[in-house]
Amino acid sequence: MFAGLAANLLSGDVVTLDTLGRVDGDVATIFRRMGFKPSSSGKLFDDYVAGGAGAQPLVVGYENQLVEWVMQDPDRWKRLEASAPAKPVMLYPRPTVLSAHPLISLVREADELVDALTNEAMLELAWEDHGFRGPLGTIGKTKSVLLHTRMLDAINAVLPMPEAGPMMALIDHSAA
Predict the structure, then answer these.
(1) 80-94 pLDDT, tens digit each
(2) pTM for this entry
(3) HEC states along 104-115?
(4) Does the N-terminal or the C-terminal CB of the chain have fewer CB atoms within 10 Å?
C-alpha cells in the first residue's frame, strides 16, 4: 500500500501502466533508501514500539495499529505520554489511500454476516476498539480522550489504489 500511495503522490493521480514509468524509479529509490523493512506492517509496528524512536524514527503503517495499541493498555499510553522523549504521532498524507477489507458472500446463508458487519453498532465497535473507520472512512470521530487529539475526525482526500497491473509492476521494480 505504501508503494501505491507513494506512486500516486509522486504522479499527482492514480498511477496507471501508462504513467508508471514516470515515477517507478523514484518509488524504488524511496524503498532502497529506507533499507530492509519487514514484509508486514504489524512486525514493523511491533519493532517501532519495542525499540522506540531511536530504532525506528518513522514507520509506515495503519492508523488502526496505534489505536489498538493504545486501547489494549491505556495506562501504558498514559505513561508514554507523560515521560517518553518521543511520542507516536500519526501523519496523514493528503491525498491518502484507504485499506479495504472486502467480504464476499459465496452462499446465501453468509449474507447475514455481511449485514451484521455493516450494522451501525458493529461499525462503531470496530472503530472505537480497533481503529477501523468502516466503509469509505464513514466513521472516524473518536470518543477516546487518549486519541482525540492524535487522529483526524475525517479522511476527506482519498485516491484509490492503483489497479493490479501497475501495482504488480511497481512492486517488482521496487523489490529489484
Answers:
(1) 888 877 778 888 888
(2) 0.77
(3) CCCCHHHHHHHH
(4) C
